[in-house]
Each structure stands twice: as C-alpha cells, then as structure tokens.
Amino acid sequence: MNKPSTVLELLSDPKKWTQDVEARDSQGMPTDVNNNDTTCWCLLGAIAYIYGSEHHDSKCSNLQRAIDDTCSDGKSVNIIDFNDAHSRTHKEILAVLEKAQI
Q: pTM for the full model?
C-alpha cells in the first residue's frame, strides 16, 4: 500500500479514523502511528504519520484554525477534544480536513 499524501486522503475511509488514542492496530489496540500494523489514526496521529515532525506544527495550526472556524458557538475546542467528542462524525472530520487543506 502506498502512503497517502494528505491526512484527508488517509482518513477518507471511516475505518481509518479512530478516537481516544493516536493510532490503533488491526486488533484495535493502541499503537505507534508509524507501526507497520497501524490501521487507523486520530487527527493528530494522522498528521504525525503523514507529515512527520518537520511540518507537524504548521499542519496542526491549519487544522486548529479550521476547527475554530467550524465551531459556531465561538468556543475554542482543541484538536484532541474535537476528534474525541463522542458525538463527532466522520463527515465532520472530513469537513475540517478539507477546510484545513491537509
């Protein structure tokens, strides 16, 4: 499998997105984002996997701005809390990734 070039491409399949940990393996257990057996990632885990440490801060900043723009109540929600909200949908995840262009 070729590595996707964007987080949006990586997480386009709902099965590749997770909550409450950065990454999970094929057994659903928490794992490192770069483990060969990793099958799904949270937003931050996906950024780390796709962009590594070199572009991590700028990509997170873009994503945080997109999340802030999306939250209509004016309250700032950090990336982890946005990803892990139990009511969060995969469609909402894709929408902020499109807005952030990552």
A: 0.93
